[in-house]
Amino acid sequence: MRLFAFGFGYSARALMRRLEGWTAAATYRDAEGAATLAAEGVTGVSVDDREGLARELAQARAILLTAPPGPGGCPALPVLVPALAQANAFPDWIGYLSTTGVYGDRQGGWVNEDSRLAAQSVEGARRMAAERDWLEVGRGMGLTVTIHRLPGIYGPGRSALDRVREGAARRLKAEGQVFSRIHVDDLAAGLAASIAQPRAGGIYNLCDDEPAANSEVVAEAARLLGRAPPPEQPLDLESLSPQARRFYAESKRVSNARAKAELGWRPAYPTYREGLAAILGAGG
After folding, report:
1. What is the tens place of the pLDDT at every residue in 77-130?
2. Residue 72 sits in which domain range?
């Protein structure tokens, strides 16, 4: 069985580790990208090679879309839609990785997949548009498109443990502010469950069970490393980078009940505590 990924990064690699017996193909934009894919045993296809894309898409059982949208929308749309049509390809599953940022700020309240979308950043609005566009493609071409809304992804090499070790961790305190997150292996398990049970138009939040303040996560990482946690600082949005400012401008709790009910998925790391402990135990 074959996975085709438009963007072969952290999440796609985790999914491939999960899909036993599968092979992968993925897009690249330059020689460096092609070399990286080849070194990992992934068949590379240039985004400018329409014939090559059509050949690969004709073989794919599942297609994963990970590239973030830009001002012109999802970069995969103008590349893959013509190639899918040329190949007359009907994969079992097309999964678009979106963000829980489409819900905007809920002042700590809960959201689920039926909640009103209220993105309050340019990036969140672009994700909303990309979701809409891919769902329309699915309906128009008879393809099984699913949307997966993700919070912050952490895992080996990308966690609060690394920031604490580097001395870069900050504990910013804002009363009542919480975030959801997901371990990359739980994300991969959720995507694999969706591939096994494809539903056209399906939308799923993939996140852990316990939204928490970022300061709590940093404190736990420090505890696991046997270090004193950095002191809490009052949140000052104006002092943050634009990316961090967007992150801290929103507070919400994201429900994963639909993914559990429809896909039979359960996070192996239901909170950041289990996730960080597992990363550290594996040497991460």
Report:
1. 999 999 999 999 999 999 999 999 999 999 999 999 999 999 999 999 999 999
2. 2-153+182-205
Structure tokens at 82: 């013509």
Instruction: Answer whether 210's CB lies under 8 Å from 280's CB.
Output: no
**Contact 153/11 with Cβ under 8 angstroms?**
yes
Please indicate, yes or no, whether residues 109 and 165 belong to a single structural domain of this protein. no
* Dist CA 169 CA 143 (whole Å): 43
Q: At a CB cut-off of 8 Å and minimum separation 6, what does 255 contact?
A: 110, 111, 112, 205
pLDDT along the chain (284 residues), means of 10: 98 98 98 97 98 98 97 97 97 98 96 97 96 98 98 97 96 89 98 98 98 96 97 81 80 98 98 98 92
Q: How many domains does the chain have?
A: 2
Q: Let me know whether 55 and 85 are in one domain.
A: yes
Q: What is the pLDDT of residue 249?
A: 85
> Which residues have CB under 8 Å from 200's CB, separation 6+?
138, 139, 143, 144, 145, 146
Same domain, 163 and 124: no
Buried b vs exposed e over 178-197: b needs ≥16 C-beta within 10 Å? bbbbbbbbbbbbbbbbbbee
Q: In which element (H, E) is residue 254 found?
A: strand 253-254
